[in-house]
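Justification of computing resources. Each target in the renewal requires a structure prediction run like the one illustrated here; the chain below, 146 residues long, is used simply to show the kind of job we budget for.
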Amino acid sequence: MEDVIDIISYLLDHLDEDEENSEIEEQLLAAGYPEEGIQRALDWMDGFDEDHSPENSRSAIRGYQPWENLQLSVATRGQLAEWEYLGVINSSIRERIIDRLLALELEETDLETLDWVAFLVMVNEDGPDGYWMDHLLSPDGRRILH
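Resulting structure tokens:
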């Protein structure tokens, strides 16, 4: 699954929003990425178009399924809870972040991957919430909130 993360990073650096999937696939194949990884990365990116979010609720407490606990580290779950408590994200955005993290199918998610996925989710959200994500990282990329 590390290929998928590399491919998505490449897309973020080189993607032109007007390009069709076939053109993007050709670029990625030419860059040496495996076809299976390319398709998984494109599917992952398409997940932003889907709405899996429940109604936003300030009092919602998130319980995790056992299979979610296996993929989302204690630190990841704790960071999500802290961001929600601080008002940086709401329950709807939290669910979107969790959905995108689980879609990566990693053995366990670390805080660096959480930051990366949270940033992508926040950038793709409507409204001012994306502003907050920029403030979670210092200018040199280190985490400010722990």
